[in-house]
Structure formats: C-alpha cells, structure tokens
C-alpha cells in the first residue's frame, strides 16, 4: 500500500458529503491554511488540527481503513456527518503532495483509533462466538403466519379493487385521481405489504403522466395483479420465484447467501428521496467474479445514508446475496482492506446484448424495472426531444429514460463523448437506459453522471 | 385496450376462459402481454449521429489541477452562504485559475465543461476566459443546449468562422444581410485585422443606417484609430444625430494631428495665457464668450447642464479636446509639471486642471498624467480637490504598471485605505512588492485603530485576489487574536484575526493553485 495508491480523488472525497452545503464548506477547508499538525499513517488514519473561530483548534481524525467505511471524529459541534473539517482534511490529503505527511499519530488521535479498533474487534469476536439470541422460534413462526394472513387478505382485497377498476373502465381512473389510490395504499400498509402499497401509490400518478397513460396504467395494474396472484399461489411456485415474490411484496429478508469475497469496484452511487426516506443505491462490480451487485442503504428524509463508497474505488470485501431469483441486492460483509482507487473498468456489451439481457432477466423476475449493464463503445445522440446511446460500430440504439434526459449528468456524458465512443454503466429497463457512470474511450478516470 | 378503457361492464372481452370473471381474465391477458412486450424489446435504430467535436490538441491538466478545478466549481453561489469566516471565497479565485490555466495552454477536462459553461452563464465577466479554456468542445456542446447559447454569441459569428478580409464576397453578404449583433462582431473583427477595410465597409452603408446603429458602428472604430480615419470622422461631424456628432468629435480629438484637434488647440489657446503682470508668472483664463456654429460642429455642446456657467462649460470642452502637446509651446516652453504648478488667476484653477485631466486620459498622455497626479503624499491627493479619485484612477491607468503601483503605495502609506479602493482596482495583479507591503501595513494600522474589519471588506477582498502569495509570510503574525485595547470596538480583534486568516489561506491557496498548474 503506497501513499499514492491509497489517495482518493477530490470527487471521491466530495461524494462522502452529506449535503451540498457541506460539500461547499468542505471545499473551502481543503487548503493548507487553517490546518496544522496534519499527518497520516500507513494504517489509513488521517488527522489534523483545524483553526476555527474559537481559540482552540478542532481536532479531526479520520479512519479510512475501517471495515464499515471511513469513520470520522471531530471536536467541532457540528451534527453533520462527516463534518466540513473531516471533508476538508480528506481533500487536503487527496489534493496536495506533502500537505499531509507521514507521521506518528498524536496521542489524541491514537486514543480514538485504538478505541475504535478494539470495539470493532470485540464485536467481531462476539459475532463469531454466537449469534444473537434467536428468541422463541415458535413465536416467530406464529408471527410470520399471522402476517402472511394479513397480506393474503390485503392481496385479495387489492385483486377485488383491480377487478372493479377494469369493470368500470380505466377511463374513470382519470377522474378519481390520487384519493382512491392513496386510500388503497393505506389499506396495503395496514396489511403489512409495503411493496404492494408502494406500487399502488405509483398507480395514482400515472393518469396525470401525459399521453399514453391508459396503456401504462393497464400494464402496471396487470403487473400488480401478477404479483397478487404470485402471492396467493406462492406455494406452487419454484423456491427462487417465491422468494422474489416475497421480496416484491415487501417482506423483510436477511442476506443469507453464501459470502462472496472479491475486489469490488464501485460503479455508481446515487440517492433517491421521498418524503420519509433517502435511499442510497451503490452498484458494485466484482473484478474476479464478474458479478454486478447492489447495496441499498437508507437514511431519514433529508439526511444522507451513512454508507458512502466513492465511484472508482475498489474494496476487498465479502458480500452476501439476499434471497430471490434475479435479485442483485446484497449486504456488505467484512471488508479486508481500505478502499483504493483502481483503473479497472467493467467489461461491456453492445446495445442489442444489453436489451436482450433485460429481457432474459424478466424470466426470473417479471417485475424487474431495469438491470445494470455496461455498454461499450456507444455514442450519445440526440433523438427528437430526448437522447439515445447508439452503437459506435452498428446501427442499434437505446433511448435514455426521460428522467435521465433532464439530469445534469447527461451533459457531462455528452461533453465527455464529444461525439466519440464512450463506455457507459447504467440501468437498462423497459423505459430505456439510465446512465450512471462513464469512461472515456482512451485512458481516463470514471466520470459520475448521477 | 379499448375494453380496459371502457370497462368490461360495458364491453365484454373476446375470450374469457371458464372459471374466470371478465376483469380478471383481462388482467391475466394484460400481464402476459406486458411481460412479453418488455422481454421482447429490441434496440431501436440509431438516429443521425453528431459530427464529432473538433479535437483539442492542448495537453491535459495535471491531476492535482484537475482536482482543484472540481473544487472551485463545487463552490457555486447559492450553496450555503452566510458569514464568510476564515475560508477563502473559491468562486472569486476561478478567474485567476482560468487565466493561469490559459497561460499554460491546457485543455479543459471534457466532463468539467457543463459546470464551466454554467458558471460562465451566470457571470458575464468569466465568459471570455471560460470559453478560451473550454476550447472547441464547448462550442460543440453549446450548439446542443440552448442554455449555453451565449457561447455561440460570444464566439464571433456564432461559432462559425467570421469571414476575413480575404473573402470580400462573404463579408459584404454578412454586412448587408446579417443581424445587428453579427454586423457589430464582423466590423470589430475586421477592424482588428484591417482597419481601412472596416472603415470602407462601414462607409458603404453609412448613410442608410439608423442613428443608434451608426453610433455603435462609429464606436467600434475606436479600436485602431489612425490618421487615415480622419476624413470619414470629419464627415460624421455633420451627422444628423447629435450623439454621432459628439462621438466623431471625441474620436477626432484623440488624434492630435487632426484638423479638429488643430482647431480646438487654436480655440483653447486663445483662452489660456501666462501673465507676468502679477509678479510671479500666473495663468490667466479668458473663457469663450459664445459658442459659435463652428464650435458646435466640432462637438462642443452649447447648452450647459443646470448649475454651471455657460462660459466655463465651453472652456472645459475646448481644453479637453485640445492636444496637450500644444500647451508647452503656448505657455512659455514649460514642462507639464511646471505648467500644473503655475498659479491660476480668478479661481479658474479647478476648472482648467479638471479639463487637462480629461484630456490626459483621453489622449493617454503619461507625462501629463504624472504632472496632474502630483506626488501621492501631497495633502490634496487624499481629499476632494480639483482631481477626484475616479479621475486619479483614470490618470493612473495611463501610466506603466510599476509606476502606478508605486504611486498607489505612496498614497496608501500617507492617506490610509479608506479612499484607496478605486485606485487599487487599476493596479496590475499580483500587486508589486511595495504596494502589497503598503496595503498590509495599512490594514494593520486600521486594526490597531480599533475599527471593524468590514469597513475594509472591499480592500480585503481585493487583497485576497491581488496580493502576491509571497506576502503570506508577513501575514502570519497578524492572524493571532490580539489583546483588546480599551477603546477598540468590542470583538473586533477576533474578526480581524479571522479576516487575516482568510487572507492568508487564500494566498496560500493561490500559490498552490499556481504550482499545481506548472507543468512537471
């Protein structure tokens, strides 16, 4: 592990920021001025004193090598996490040669690191010695059964509502508006089927989504019907599909797949937010296994989830899959080394192959909206109001999703390409392709588009 | 689909399997169809491809500089805000960064172009540097996104090369059919390369142009003004529009050899003379008694603004337009310094000196500017006198950079900072050693005087951008929070320390930025 090897890029550091204001404040502190006694160690610790408005400087320590992602400690009163001082220190460390020299950690930094590492070791030891008490298995089974009954009742009720809708005609859905769907969604929440509730809520938005809405509404109703039927007849389904149905309904599952150790390249990280929750999606690509997997993490509305993995880093870690056929979601297990920048790029396919891949994935999970894929040698081309990605060496093209067409990342993609082929990672689905990360044709770092 | 839209109650679906009611059967069929459609999706046909962007042969940025650019661009206005604290204002450093990067001739990283163009969209002053740095690919992008249209406007001819003098046909076509903005761009571009061709082009349609267009076109002759323009300008003195006439007169008076300058010299000379009857030689002024048709034709405005005497108003205009070179001969072979030092009879001094100042600025005459500025330590240099601060700043701009810096340094060390902002604005960046030293000393004095730093926020901001990073060493000592003297404004010491710290941080950052951009 050389010093050059572990240094991150400014983009990667800024990706850790919880919000735009922190990003800005951190950028300002990413210069030598306010810092003194800054240093770093071979074990992946960075520390420094930051002069603030008070008489005593703030003490900032960051542990990059921690197995659960970078950990921060700062004596400032900010409740943001990481605070601007931690971001600034990391930027300083990432940016300037010699600004953060190698050295011995001062006592105050060493103390915290030792404490952390010890706690982590204790936890690991505890985890290995015995799993947390499983509780009463009989009671757990009864609870699960009761919940299944509620869901069955909910699914049956939903089937009735869908049938009523079709009997009366979709045209009436335009008048009934959100209210009807909100009420139905609330019923599904009561039935403890959050997956159904979310789908129902989305139905409410379709009648106002522009031309062609009846077809989209019928499709979504049909898929909802399919999910209901899947649940009601889950006993007759193959195991994998039954697990998929359970996860789509919204039943909690634990990632009990066999752990897979690999060097995982971080392909993309992006957040989506609704009124209650911020959801962070991180796509990883196994450089050895060739698998592309998804990490999900959540934060309260308006706050960034804690797990942050900057694009372009690779981490040596174990992941375990969640159950269900055609599911790419995994949980991150043990991490064996701090994340390091890598020049590795995922191998890509052409447009036709990417589209076919989504079609095949529907066999395992008919509710799948999109599938991760890397497109190789494609060119962004304007097409009417939107954009498409066209094979550089063929005549096939894939439209970008309408949402992707209005993001700032689109222009970074277009600028990066300049009319020449690029490699693009993104999600390919029935709405089109949503680009997340791109690489130039020649040498060059990954450029995030989301 | 129709069935679904109308409802199975109104229209029965075609084939309902036994044991299923109609709506359920319809949903079954729709589910199959939906999954089939999604699974059977094919790639579409590619639309017409874009012409690739022109290659940018410039070398790529060093990695550290590319990271710095990302950070500078992350600091966009609107995010955060509030009190500035000790952190540097990164957006204010972007112009310098761009100038340095352009100086080294680096190519912009393509993925940074959207952010650069967005930054330039909001700040017109950034545009030339951003567009130079962004290179051909930015123009390629601007053609695809209407938000960035300004890039095409700023680039001459909307990105397509303007016709040069070697293509007279295209020049003529664009001149006769182009939009006003295109025509102005064409005229300025042509003027820069072939002054005479531009003037001749303008003359072809001059009589038919609208008055406000004539004014703009005439203004573009200011660049590369030469003796050969005189006949054209002389003709414009008879223009229908008064604004055009006065612009033509102003341009002619900047040509000391022009007939108009000669006429003005004669008129002005008749009004000003040296009189020895007072004992010491004294300048006496006899302002003109009337504004005749000839004067009006030469651009003198006959009607004085409210509150000014007509005669002094006319005198001011005559002296301003007369070539400064005629005065030594007219006033007994004296140098400008000697002339400025002469006493002036009957309170005409302010009027006369002010007119000479305007003349020195218009004719860009350093020796007269120097004489009129006087020594920076002179008591009247600080206060409102014959020569206002704005005029001093203009006079300074006619001097060479080192002389300018030295004068301002002298001014600050005597008069302090409160009046210096405008003068500092005309000094070249980074500030020369003595000037930087004078500013830092003056800030230090201001702090000891116990006032708040925001009284000096303008100068502080300038210092952050303009002070030589080498001064950072001298600033170290100032960042400490001093003990508060009794008569000081409460808390000022802490704010001063914060301000100095920001200054220091910014200087260090600027030094780092420069070294990052230096090729390895």
From TrEMBL, chain A:
InterPro entries in the record: Znf_SWIM
Domain of life: Bacteria
Region of interest (Disordered), ranges: 118-146
SWIM-type domain location: 58-94
Keywords: Metal-binding, Zinc, Zinc-finger
Pfam families the record matches: SWIM
Single GO MF descriptor: zinc ion binding
Protein name: SWIM zinc finger family protein
Automatic annotation (TrEMBL), chain B:
InterPro entries given in the database record: DUF5691
Pfam family for this entry, one: DUF5691
Name the record gives this protein: Uncharacterized protein
Originating organism: Streptomyces apricus
